[in-house]
């Protein structure tokens, strides 16, 4: 009985500590991305579910699934992690006539996004200041995202306008109409090593290629 109680108490403490913000400090393959500039959404931190990210399911629905494991970098990219990742393809998939801004091909992106999911990025912020937040994306519905710095919300809910096009009769391609929003909103960032969190707030159904931070 006593051992059981002790185990339950330990589990409770572990559970409580998981809700406090803890910087993982572990950028993807130790190559931290920097601001100003682009933050590739697929290069999120290492550490797994609950530490580096929260995803609705443990499966990577892109790498190793939609894109079968075949020994290639793009198909197998982080395929054993819960964040869902695919990449832009030709043959009228991502280079289709419904793009607002044409994407480059073979660009990895985070997809299968759902409200409540989040992803951490340990970054080097080279200059303090106010930045515009851009995003290369697709959005099936009007979605919203939000950003934290070191666990504190630094943005409003940012509207990611739908790229749905009624004229496209290929249903699955509604998730492949790319656009680049130059300024979804603004954030104030402080200099140094920080952890940025990208939250999917509402709607989901978005694909994130990269965030872009430009100093105002
Ligand atoms: Ca998943
Ligand atoms: Ca997901
Ligand atoms: Ca990308």
From TrEMBL:
Q: Name one GO molecular function term.
A: carbohydrate binding
Q: Where is the CBM6 domain?
A: 78-214
Q: What is this protein called?
A: Carbohydrate binding module (Family 6)
- Which residue positions does the secretion signal occupy? 1-18
Source organism: Chryseolinea serpens
SMART domains per record:
CBD_IV
Q: Which CDD domains match?
A: CBM6_cellulase-like
Superkingdom of the organism of origin: Bacteria
Q: Sorted alphabetically, which keywords does the UniProt record give?
A: Signal
Instruction: List the PROSITE patterns.
Output: CBM6
- TM ranges are none
